[in-house]
Amino acid sequence: MYNHVRWLSAKKCMKRFFAIRKEIPAFLNVYVSSDTTELEEKFKDPEFLRQLAFITDLTNHLNSLNLILQGRNQTVLDLIGKINGFRNKLNVFKHDLEKNNLTHFPSCLQLAEEFNSEENIEFSCCSSQIQQVIDEFNTRFKKIESLKSSVLLYNNPLGATIEDQPPDLQLELCDLQADMFLITRQEMGPEFFKLLSKEKYPNLRDFGLKMTSMFGRHIHVKVPFPP
Questions:
Q1: What is the pTM of this model?
Q2: How far apart are CA 164 and CA 107, in angstroms?
Q3: Quick one: which of 23, 102, 136, 194 has the most CB atoms within 10 Å?
C-alpha cells in the first residue's frame, strides 16, 4: 500500500512505533505463534533502540520540511529560503550530536534518560548520518546556488547592483531604479513585477514571470499578471 503520498505519514508511524517499543515484545510473545525471540531481543538491544530513536527524530524533521514546502502561495524565493534554512538546521544537528546534545532530538533524549541508570548511551556516532543527509542535500539542491543572483534580483530589484545583472536587464534596471512611481512602492516579489509596464520593462517583466512560475505545482498566485 506504499506510495509517495503516504510517506508524509511516516513521521506519525515512527513516533507511534517508538512510543510502544516496550509493548511490542510482549505482544509478539503472547500473540505470535512462531518463534519471535530474535525480534524480542532487538527491543532490548541499546544499539537497535538508539538507531530507532534517531531515525524517529530525523524522520520527524524531514517530514516537517516536506509539509511546509507544500504550502500554497509560495514563490521560488520562499521555497529556497526554507530549504536553505533546513540545511542550516542540519549543521546545528550535527554539531549538537557530536557533543551528545539531544535538545532537538526528543526521542533520543527520552531513551538516553531511560538508560541513564543502567548505562551511558551515546548518540555522537549519529553525527556521521547527519553528514550523509547534508551531503545529499548539497547534491540535490546544488543548482540553488546558481539561482542566488536571480533570487536576490527578484526579491529586491530596486536595490540590485546593476553591473552584476545580465546585460539584457541592465538598461531597464537603470530606468526602474530611477522611476519615481516604482521606488515609492512597498510591494515585493510577484506583486512588484505586476506593476511593470510591458512596453517599458519587457525583459524585467519576463524575468518576473519566469521566477514567479518556478515550482508551479506549489504556487497559487491570487491575482494573475494583466495581459
A1: 0.75
A2: 48
A3: 102
